[in-house]
Amino acid sequence: MKADTDTSVRRPNQRPELAAIDDETMRGVLRKMHLIRKFEEAAEASYMRGLIHGTMHLSIGQEASAVGATLALMDEDYILSTHRGHGHCIAKGAEPARMFAEFFGKENGYCRGRGGSMHIADVDGGNLGANGIVGGGLPIAVGVGMSIKAQKLDRVAVVFFGDGASNEGAFHEALNMASIWKLPILFVCENNKYGMSMDIGRAMAVPNVADRAVAYAMPGVVVDGNDLPAVAAVAREAAERARAGGGPTLIECKTYRLRGHSKSDRNLYRTKEEIEEWRSRCPIRRLEAELTAHERFTPEALMTIEEAAQAEIDAALDFAKASPDPDPKDLTRDVYAD
Question: Cα(first)–Cα(last) distance of the chain, in Å?
Fold first, then answer.
């Protein structure tokens, strides 16, 4: 279907959040969402076959929050990620081939094979790194925000974290300092209902993480994290506010991880019925259904986007498998001691 850059005029029945994303941009959105899903499915399969060692934390089911929150960003903007960060990395523009190379411990991975799943960084692309410490990216984001403000740069920083991290002291300290200094930061909580195996309802005295924003005199917004246009609209408004000197915003994306906390999770704390109910809310299929309902894309056009993403992932896997291993002589390279 031919791209239509004025969808709000041609299709007046669209909700404003959907109409605000033109067809060319939407193609990129769908590509990234499919890349994230297929990257993680391929990573999971490689792990099960013994090709990848260690562990990994999959974000299958959370693609809309990663892509939606970064849609308003410029190339020069920054993100800071979490241990469940593959989606954030791809959403910011990382190459799946180099990400897989990192997974496989190869020399041409983003961190020369030393970081693995939980510590991928793409500094040139504005991704300042994932973090294996729960809430570890929050205070780093404050430092990034201070740097942006001190240099008078037209940039923002987005820091992702989970609902479990919102009970860490670093969360409260980071929001407080960011608000005092009006730093250009978007605090994006991906509330997937469970902090490892603890239901958020048993771990917080307030119903929403975003309710805590009032204590730090910043906007707190709750959004359906599986609704990409809604996430994108909220993030766009927060980014514009931050660039204009208005300070930080706390965004809570209500979403769900369809896989366990990590590869060792036996999922004994939630029911199959709950998982299946959330599976029916798949953010990718939901967006595709809305686009076809408004005749933005044909089913054939959507399938072409998905098939292209699968081909890109297949090629990325082949690249990683054929990539060189690190030289043992370089064992201490990039290792620093004070």
Answer: 58
